[in-house]
Amino acid sequence: MPARRWISWWWLIAIVLLVAQADAEQPLIPRSVLFGNPDKAAPQLSPDGKLLAFLAARDGVLNVWLAPVDDLAAAKPITDDRRRGIRNYLWTYDSRFIAYIQDKDGDENWHIYVVDVQSEQTRDLTPLAGVQARFQHVSPQHPDDLLVAINGKPIRTVYSIHEVLKQCEGKPVELTYMRDGRQHSVMLQPSLSDQGGAGPRWMIGVELAPRVTFTRLGPIEALRESLRQNARGATLIYQFLQSIVERRSSASPLEGPIRIAQLSGEAAREGAPAFINLMATVSLNLAIFNLLPIPILDGGVILLLLIEMLIRRDLSLSFKEAVFKLGFVFLMMVVVFVLYNDITKLLPG
Fold it and tell me: pLDDT, tens digit, for every residue of 15-29?
């Protein structure tokens, strides 16, 4: 017995030494791979389709590089940031400038800079002390204008404009904007409008819309893109429900028939493509919801059939009736909840 015990201990020690040696031989991932700059990131095609911009390191600091689309080997940096590096940038609609944001030594007072792609000259469009400027939206109708402030308050988000207009209650407001590197101001008279279906609110005729780029696709590419978008949309509802169960998201974004009717009206005013896209999205989500394993829905019926296949006998009628009643009560609770959400979003405040 003592001899066997010693042999067992020697085997255990040998195994530990082999494992330790194997771990020592495994190369560690360098820090530069985990925390260093990417080789290339955030590519953006110019609106005229001639130039490709991307982020890459210049002397160890991320900067914006530019290359002709037909000669990527000719890429060269057009910014020369030496401190924190550039993370966010965008093209102007005329393809003449690239705009980016940068602060000073991490003070988070972001300034908006533009660099001329031809002369490579950089200008600070927001040379204001203690002000944080960020990109919100760009307009193809006014590609050279940059909204800076309203009634002296910096415009950091679209909601900043809505808040000031609400507080002014119809009184004229002063809108400050940058054009060609110079600051201008104009007095605007708000008007009460119910456009958007969210109730009457003060507006000044400025529509801030996300930047949209339209790309023409061939039949095969269009079909492939359609399948990709539908597959992505089909999984969103499951991801959202999972986030609610895990308490990472609130259920307040759930919307019912009242809100869908409002969105349909807004989409119809935007045009046929927006309306068709909304209807397709609603139809897809209804189909996916119908496949959830909830009694009364098709997904619940399929689940019961699978259970009967596994146990190789029919479930009792009383059991099925009880399950369907529970499913009906659950669906009614969901309906009441989404209607409550829709009504509270209509109420002021």
Answer: 555 555 555 556 677
